[in-house]
Amino acid sequence: MHPVVARQPAKGNRTAIGVVEEVVIRGSKGDIRVLARVDTGAARTSLDTDLALRAGLGPVFDRVRVRAAAADEPEERDVVDAKILIAGREFDVAVAVTDRKDMRDHMIVGMDVLREAGFLVDPSKGNERENHTKRAPRTP
Fold first, then answer.
1. What count of other Cβ atoms lies within 10 Å of the Cβ of residue 1?
2. Which segments of 2-124 does DSSP mark as H helices, in order?
3. Domain span holding position 70
4. What are residue 103's DSSP bridge partners?
5. Each residue's pLDDT tens digit in the chain (140 positions)?
6. Domain count across the chain
7. How far is CA 103 from the centre of its chain?
8. Residue 78's domain is classified under what CATH number?
């Protein structure tokens, strides 16, 4: 299994991220910004095929069997190296590439990154990004 390598060491204070976070994918064709679902139930980070091509990720160095939540049978997915930036930190990570164009989320950040980063996932953060709206302030 390919390890995740963080460019900055984890700090004593853990950074809180939302269930939806802006991620920068760095590839040979440049940077691509995408809103990614942070999924504590996903073992590995997954990316849409089109995004991987647009960023210039590759070559494929491995194939993995993944059982998607909505699938009856496991599927094989290509794996490529990627540099991703989340919450100001850069990670070298092996991402599984699959066709996600018909799915709501074109990128999933999995436990492979979350474990290494030490991020805290705050379900109250990120929802306004997902809905492209700002939440109304709470009234006391």
1. 10
2. 49-55, 111-117
3. 5-126
4. none
5. 455 555 554 456 788 999 999 999 999 999 999 999 999 989 999 999 999 999 999 999 999 988 776 677 888 999 999 999 999 999 999 999 999 888 888 999 999 999 888 888 988 876 554 444 333 344 44
6. 1
7. 14
8. 2.40.70.10
Cα–Cα–Cα angle for 73, 3, 118, nearest 5°? 95
Evaluate whether residue 135 is within a structural domain. no
Contact 9, 24 (CB under 8 A): no
Q: Which residues pair with 37 in a beta bridge?
A: 20, 108
Query: Distance (Å, rounded) from C-alpha 96 to C-alpha 47?
Result: 6
Token pair of 75 as six digits: 């599927």
Report which of 125, 124, 120 is spatially closest to residue 13, judged by C-alpha positions. Answer: 120
Nearest to 19 by CA among 122, 139, 140: 122
